Description:
Blueprint: E1 8-14, H1 20-25, H2 31-34, E2 38-42, H3 52-57, E3 62-68, E4 76-77, E5 80-81, H4 82-91, E6 93-99, H5 101-105, H6 107-110, E7 138-141, H7 148-159, H8 173-176, H9 187-191, H10 207-210, E8 257-258, E9 261-262, H11 271-282
Parallel strand pairs: 1-2, 1-3, 3-6, 6-7
Antiparallel strand pairs: 4-5, 8-9
Amino acid sequence: MPSKPAKLRVIWLQGITCNGNTHSFLNDSSLGNLLESIEFIHHPILPCTKTLKELVKKLPKSDILIFEGAYQGSFERAGMAMETLLSVLASKTKHIIALGSCASFGGIFKEGDPEHISGILFDKEEERGPLKMMREKIILLSGCPAHPKWLSFVIEMIVAGKKIVVDEYCRPKELYAYLVHNGCLRNEYFEWKVDSEVFGTKEGCLFYAQGCQGPYTHGSCNKILWNEVSSKTRAGTPCVGCTEPTFPKRELFTTKTYMSIPAEMPLGIPKRSYLALAGAAKSFHIKRLEERLIDDNA
């Protein structure tokens, strides 16, 4: 019988993090199958061959290095500065995955120390992270947290030896070529300018009244659903744009407008065309869209 291919050796290294991406990964329903093709040299929670203290004593080679959390050069893990720890491990691996918005762009933690905290490749929108010279082997999976299926997809592509086509921020196009707006069940409300004024309802668009960032945000949240059933917009909560380098946005849950016109047009839509369509839509009243989808009193 032919022998099974060797498992890919993975190191999961954490910078400044809330552990959100670690816990997101544990919710992948196919995690058991994935672990049949990889083994963790180090992982903060899952079974692995080396503790962090053992890892830093002799920094090993790996097939995949996953970095979770924001980067700060002086931040220490097991007594070793991240500036040294990350650069050595990155030089000894074949593939690097920046997991989550903090690892990708700096994220929320950057807000606390903008001068010294960044992602491993990008600092917000600028490509000046510590691993900028290793760009060719870096994949970014931005999100707060990143969807577990996004990480599984990248690992499975690497295991299969398939090319991953990426965008300008090194994010897989298969996952980030879409807008969160795509696949949103509220698109008809958006088109006909029927707004939702409160959280948690099934009816209405969340863009005008609640600041939904779906029309500006790249991600497959409404195509690859969370827990295979839901997403922020499906649950009645506006998208906060967590996959973008500009996250976190100030003044969440508001869309800045000038005389009821968005200050920023949805991506790819010319202002003149948007105004013409919006004007036409507002002249209609569609009774079906103004009613409750499910009448509690029926």
